[in-house]
Write a structure and sequence with these properties.
By secondary structure, this protein is α/β, with parallel strands linked by helices. 39% of the residues lie in helices and 13% in strands. Helix 5 links the parallel strand 4 and strand 5.
Length: 212
């Protein structure tokens, strides 16, 4: 039996390890990675942003194996003064989203701050609660590590947040970054690895299984 690693399948579709492959992914998927109206020459993602995104990827896997069929998702909320206000993750399938948890944990003090997400907000419950929570928090910026890979959800939250007047930066190897290209690529790979099962399902239309 030939077992295909989901990242290799995804890379064949436009993602694999390495700088060239991640750039092909972004070019092929036609992703919009900057907030509307921002000049492409202005770095939108910093090394500090990448560091926190990597933290969200690690945090999101705290409940790995419990969230399926939903993704592993996490939210780190940073106040306008740079203080860490909340670090939340979806704990199980059907549980409250990390964005809503952040809203419940903070309530006040996040206005003008930044929300970091390893994965674009979804809408598992069909009520738009995750996006609404970010809007209610009053954050001025959202940094997304990975656009949602499922077609029906891809770009939906990003557009909704921008429509609400929030700057949104989506990480890709073509995003203007004030960071080393290798750091960008490493961060992208961590975003992909955090949701290996979701990417596998998005490409192959079947759940990720491990044969022992």
């Amino acid at each position: 039996m030939h077992i295909v690693h989901p990242q290799h399948v995804w890379s064949h579709s436009t993602v694999c390890r390495g700088r060239c492959a991640t750039r092909r992914l972004q070019a092929a998927s036609g992703r919009v990675t900057r907030a509307a109206g921002r000049e492409s020459s202005v770095p939108s993602i910093t090394e500090h942003d990448l560091s926190i995104l990597r933290e969200t990827a690690s945090l999101s896997t705290s409940s790995a194996g419990l969230t399926q069929p939903h993704p592993n998702s996490a939210c780190i909320l940073v106040g306008p003064d740079g203080r860490r206000l909340a670090s939340t993750y979806q704990r199980a399938a059907g549980a409250v989203s990390s964005e809503v948890q952040a809203l419940r944990a903070v309530r006040e003090g996040a206005r003008g701050g930044v929300a970091y997400l390893n994965l674009e907000s979804g809408d598992c419950h069909g009520d738009g609660a995750a996006v609404r929570a970010l809007v209610d928090l009053g954050v001025s910026r959202v940094v997304v590590g990975l656009e949602h890979p499922l077609p029906h959800a891809r770009g939906v939250a990003v557009r909704a947040l921008r429509s609400a007047g929030i700057d949104v930066d989506v990480l890709s190897s073509s995003t203007p970054c004030a960071a080393e290209p290798t750091d960008v690529d490493d961060t992208i790979m961590q975003m992909l690895e955090a949701n290996e099962a979701l990417l596998h399902r998005a490409v192959l239309r079947r759940p990720l299984s491990i044969l022992k």
